[in-house]
Model the fold of this input.
Amino acid sequence: MAHPDGARRTLTLTHHAKRTTIPGEATRMLLWIDYFFLSLPGLLLTIWAQARIIRAYAAGARVWAVSGLTGAAVGEWVLRAGGVGDAAIEQASGELSDYYDAGHTLLRLSRGVHEGRSLTALGIAAHEAGHALQQAAGSPGLIVRNVVVPWAGLGSQVCGILLVAGLWLGMTRLIVLATILFALALVLQLLNVPIELDASRRAREVLLAEGVVCLEEEPIVARVMNAAAWTAVAATLTGVLRLGSWAPGRS
Done:
């Protein structure tokens, strides 16, 4: 027969374990709620940016360009018309991986944009080619973009790591630091938006002057190109949420 004192000690230890486990889980939940509400303004902004991109891209994807040109051909046209003959175009892996590499004067287009003939493919390719026009014109904004975008991307990744660590360890300081980094990354991306809009404006002027798009297509293309200016802002939220999905209670 088990000794009564031993049974009593076992019950006491079990009860103590339950009391210490439940507050720990409650603390993590409260920290997650705190992070959510502290980051709510930024989250709403990035969600709005994502919704705007999805709507514009979906509308343009349903309309084929009258010119019949692919995104790669339109990008090359904008580069040539803008006097940027030394820039190369290559197909990039992944979706929405379109980017102009100013350091290598290289326009990278995802497969859907590179080979696509919709107004969405046309608008995205032209927008990225607009950065090459900025470089050719010596625009200081492109210099700012080349500094801001990498740092903002790094900030959003570190933010996600700190968020997960803070929630797992129950450390409020890490949650606060993650919130601050998320806000800073978002501010940096917002500073880049006017530069992105300027690239769209330059490319759109070339498209109209060269007759690559007709007047009926221009409003749709303009919406796609302006939405493309917000992709970095939307990516800030995506990166944080991807890492945040590893937080306790979020699997």
About this structure: The longest helix spans residues 172-210.
